[in-house]
Amino acid sequence: MVPGAGLEPARPFGQRLLRPPRLPFRHPGNLSIGRGVPVHDARRILPRRFPQHRRATEQPPGSVRRVRVFEVVVHRLRMDLVHELATSQGRHARRPVVLVEVTTDRGSGWGECAALAEPTYTSEYADGAEAVIIEHLAPRLLDAEDEWDGTTGGMGLLSGVRGHQMAKAALEMAVLDAQLRSSDQSLAAFLGATADVVTAGATVSSGPPGAVVAEVAEVVEAGFGRVKCKITPGQDVDTIREVRASFPDLFLCVDANGAYDLTSPTHRRAISELDDLGLVAIEQPLAPEDIAGHAALTASLATPVVLDESVCDLAQLDGVLARRACDGVSIKPARLGGVLAARRAHDRCLAAGVHLVAGGMLETGLGRAAALAVAALPGFDLPGDLGPSNRYFEPELTDPHLLVDGMLAVPDAAGVGREPDRDLVDALRVRTTWIEPSQSRSGEPSGAA
Ligand SMILES: [Mg+2]
Fold this sequence. Notes:
The chain has helices at residues 39-44, 126-143, 165-182, 187-191, 209-222, 237-246, 265-274, 291-300, 314-322, 333-336, 339-352, 365-375, 422-428, 445-448, and strands at 69-87, 90-104, 107-113, 197-199, 201-204, 226-230, 251-255, 281-283, 305-307, 328-331, 355-358, 407-409, 429-436, 439-443. By secondary structure, the chain is of the alpha/beta class. The chain folds into two domains: 28-58 and 190-409, TIM Barrel (Alpha-Beta Barrel), CATH 3.20.20.120; 69-183 and 420-448, Enolase-like, N-terminal domain (Enolase-like, domain 1), CATH 3.30.390.10. The strands form three sheets. Strands 5-6-7-8-9-10-11 form a seven-stranded parallel β-sheet. It has a five-stranded antiparallel β-sheet with strand order 3-2-1-13-14. Helix 9 packs parallel to helix 11 (339-352). Magnesium ion is lined by residues 255, 257, 283-284, 308, 330.
C-alpha cells in the first residue's frame, strides 16, 4: 500500500526534497557537524545518497598466518548493566556474556559473543549461542582438516551451520585475535582501518519526554556529540519533539527497532511527524522482514532510513541495496557474522553509495574493541553507536575505552586490542565448558575450572 494514504501528515509522504549532490567523504573523526551546528546545516551537508546498486568491489583484508585450533573454552559470565536500556522490544538490565578462548599452534585468543539475554533483537540469544558454539561450531573448527586461514575462507569451516551469526562472530574474533597477536598486527590494521579515533555515540532509552530529555542532557554534558534515542509507538513524536526543542543543534537519530507498521494510520502519522524534526537518521522503523515497506519509506522520507535488523548477512544486504530499501546501513560485526563479513558489507555499501553507520551492541570492552576496529574503516560517514565501555559496565572486563573530547581511540595493540581480566572472568563466571578435538566436557564454576 502507499504510505500515508488517507492521511494528511504535516508533509505528505511521497514529497521528495531536492538535495544537493553528495559531498566528498569525510571520516567521522573529522566531522564538523554535531553540537553547535544548526540542524538545517547538518541536513544540508548530509544529503541522501540514492543507492546505485552494482556489484561491489571488495578489497581483501591483510594477511595473517594460518593456524590450527587445539582447544576452545567457552566462559559464561553474568554481568548486570549499570543502567537499563529500554527499547521497543523490551528492557535490557542484565547481560549474559559468552566469551570464547581458543588455543592454537600460534598462541591463544579471545572472542566475545554479543547475543543478548532474550531473542528480541535478532533470533539469537545468549543461551542458544553458547549451546551452538559448544555443540556445533567449536567441534567443526577443532575437527577441520584445514587450518584457519584468517580470511573469509576461514569461516568456511563453520558454513555447515546455518545462521547463528553472533556465535560464529565470537569464534572468528578469537581465532583472529590469536593469529594477529602471533604476527604483532592490530585488528584495525589488518582490516584496513584508516582512522585513529572514532566519534562516540550515546543511545538513550525510550520513554516520556521529561525522562528522555533529562538523559539526553546528561550525555550531551558528558561530551557525546551524537545521540540516538530509542522510540516506541506512543513514546515517539512528543518525546523527540521535546528533545529537538531542548537541543535544536544536536546530531540526533532515532531507532525504532522495527516497532512500526505501515498498515497502522497511527504509526504512519508518527513516522511522518518524526520526518519533520531534523533527524539525521531513522533506524529500522519497520519489522526486519518488511523490505518493501522500508523501500517505500526510503523513497518518501526526507530523513535517511538506516537498516539494522534487516541486514543479518551479506545476501540480505545485497537484497536491500538492490531494492533501494535504505539510505544507510548500521554495520555490526556480531550481527553480520564477524569482522570479516562486516568489512565486506562496508565495501558493498560504499560501492552502492549508501551511508555507513558503526552500530553497537551491549558489548564489553572486548567486543567493543573489535567494533571500533571496524568503525575505523574509511567508509563510515555518519557517527555511530559506539560509546565508552563504562557506560553500561562496572566493573569493566577489559582496560577501558575512554571518551576523550567526544571521541574513542581505535585500539592499536596486537590482536583485537583488549583482553579480559582473568580475575574478573573468575569472579563473574557462571560456568565454563572445554571443547577439544572430537570430545567435549563441561563443568560448573570454579571447582571445574
Ligand atoms: Mg538499531
